Amino acid sequence: MAIGTKVSVGVMVAASSLANCRTTLSLVQFHLPLLRPRLPSAGPLHNLPLAHVSNLIKSGYCIQTSQEKNNYTRSCKQRAFFGDGGLELHDAGATALVVAGAYTLVSTFDKLTSANLIQQNLSRKLVHILSGLLFMASWPMFSTSTGARYFASLVPLINCLRLIVYGLSLAKDEGLVNSVTREGKPEELLRGPLYYVMILILSAIFFWRDSPVGVVSVSMMCGGDGIADIMGRRFGSLKLPYNQQKSWAGSLSMFVFGFLISIGMLYYFSALGCFQLDWSCTVQRVALVSLVATLVESLPTTGIVDDNISVPIASMVTAFLSFGY
Ligand SMILES: C/C(=C\COP(=O)(O)O)CCC[C@H](C)CCC[C@H](C)CCCC(C)C
Ligand SMILES: Nc1ccn([C@@H]2O[C@H](COP(=O)(O)OP(=O)(O)O)[C@@H](O)[C@H]2O)c(=O)n1
């Protein structure tokens, strides 16, 4: 075989011991750089003498279950392409790209607001809607390594630090203040915007693209709550009986757009193979999450707890109980 070309290698196993293997030993076809030692020819490992398999384990190979095989195959392909250290480089590059995207988004709306092309309130809401949804949409850019979610969470973490620095007026960034606050006061950055990015950090780390819970919760906070504000301000003449600050138009918009955006984001991740869903159940579950989130958002609790905490937390709890993971 020519050096440097990738070859198909018959057999690979990884991760658990012989005793713990829950499925038959796996045969996996994938490409590895030639430099790795040539492995036994293709064939089920259980045909090999145990002594030979244990030698494989001693030399760094071990047995994998079918799920580990799939995960391992995928990460092997990535390692084969990027090399062992390549996954971190891949994730660092994706992080830098998304951080740049965040900065571009906020500065774009600052320029639109400064040029009086859009009102400050609308600018804030559009940043509210787009930031989290685009951040979530960037998750498939990251690698399949276990550290990818932590790299991704650096994006909202950097913005969290940015909000704290400028919110405490340790430095000035009028563009940021103008595009994400109601009244242009720096201290406003320490409330809604700060809670918002903290929820993004939690969703990336604890749910990531492996679970529909984070996807639905961020969709409700960004899409649902964001559009409720826009529609409620414009068409919200008929107020809710238990909250004169909120309207039927705003709440109905939150339910409908929160539901639609959640379904859309779930379809996006499902189509990319991040998880598989039974759509007949999923539609009902998302409708339940959207209803609970809409009811929580409609409550007269603005002075007690910010919507950017109550809406996503209520969504996470409801989604976790109904999806189960
Ligand atoms: C305006 C925001 C929250 C205020 O909410 P509310 O008070 O109206 O209820 C959102 C603040 C966004 C933050 C400054 C920037 C977040 C960037 C995000 C983590 C990454 C986006 C990346 C993407 C590629 C644009
Ligand atoms: N369910 C809702 C939500 C907001 N709104 C309108 O949007 C405005 C801002 O809503 P909000 O206080 O929830 O705003 P944020 O805390 O989300 O920034 C409200 O004062 C209402 O005029 C509504 O009419 N109905």
Automatic annotation (TrEMBL):
A single BP term in Gene Ontology: vitamin E biosynthetic process
Pathway(s) served: Cofactor biosynthesis; tocopherol biosynthesis
Transmembrane segments: 126-142, 148-168, 189-208, 248-269
Keywords: Chloroplast, Kinase, Membrane, Plastid, Transferase, Transit peptide, Transmembrane, Transmembrane helix
Catalytic activity: phytol + CTP = phytyl phosphate + CDP + H(+)
Domain of life of the native organism: Eukaryota
Enzyme class: transferase
A single Gene Ontology CC term: chloroplast membrane
EC number of this enzyme: 2.7.1.182
Lipid bilayer topology: Multi-pass membrane protein
Main location, first listed in the record: plastid
GO molecular function: phytol kinase activity
Cellular localisation: Plastid, Chloroplast membrane
InterPro entries, alphabetized: Phytol/farnesol_kinase
Membership in a protein family: Belongs to the polyprenol kinase family.
UniProt-listed PANTHER family: DOLICHOL KINASE, PHYTOL KINASE 1, CHLOROPLASTIC
Protein name: phytol kinase
Organism of derivation: Coffea arabica (Arabian coffee)
Encoding gene (name): LOC113730740
